[in-house]
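Final report, closing paragraph on structural work. Over the funding period we assembled a curated collection of sequence-structure pairs, and we close with a single example.
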Amino acid sequence: MPKSLPYLGIAGALIAGTLMAAAGGSHGVEAGGLPAFVVLVAAAFAVQWIAFVPAWFLQTERYFDLTGSITFLVVTGSAFAIRGAFDARSLVIAAAIAIWALRLGPFLFLRVRRDGEDRRFRQIKPNFPVFLMTWTLQGLWVSLTAGPALAALLASEVRPPDWTLAAGSALWVLGFAIEVAADAQKTRFRAVPENRSRYITSGLWAWSRHPNYFGEILLWIGIAVIAVPALEGWQLATLISPVFVWLLLTRISGVRMLEARANRRWRDDPGYQDYVRRTKALLLRPPRRT
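Its predicted structure, as stored:
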């Protein structure tokens, strides 16, 4: 990796975060004389940098995912408290993110503790700028992913319940159920000692090679749909959230990294190659017949 790349990554994350803050903060309530959205984006990055300090000195990634989930809870709870509105849309958005974060953060933390490490960080931890870039990118992940939710929570006007609230909630429930079920199925599969070196093809994993990521994308689409009526002007740019989640999980990490690892491990396994041919990488659909 070129020595300048981590610094470019940090700069790019900060620029993208600034643009998101400017868009999301173009309307809505203020906090301390500044758009509250801008304050919360800054807080999202600040939490990561604070957590980075002990992580660097201890050379550990164990609290990385947990910190991300805590940051979602902090910024969402703060937005809810700053505006102080208890309308149906705000309550649903805040509850949806809280339930998601309280489930995913501990799940990932316990998985890393059980496995002893997160293999993604083996070569990252010893390199200061790369490790810092990773934590900075997590600040961007929180800011962009939660963007429409925060903008809606901080809206200056209350939008009454409508079809978007019902439709978005249904999408969120479906996506959350898929993600939780897929994670539970894989956890049970991996708990069997003889399955440690095998790939899962049962349950939702028979319909998709990465059903948990499909559920993750779907639930954030749901939150964006719920938020739409509360957004004005440049705040509509925050709707990039589900697109960003899709790009992150399919092109940057997630699917791309796991597929490469699986291909290295089982490229000579006819059963795995048949599974890949018959099963979509992301979308849930019945497997093709051989």
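The radius of gyration is 20 Å. Strands lie at 30-31, 34-35. We thank the funder for supporting this effort.
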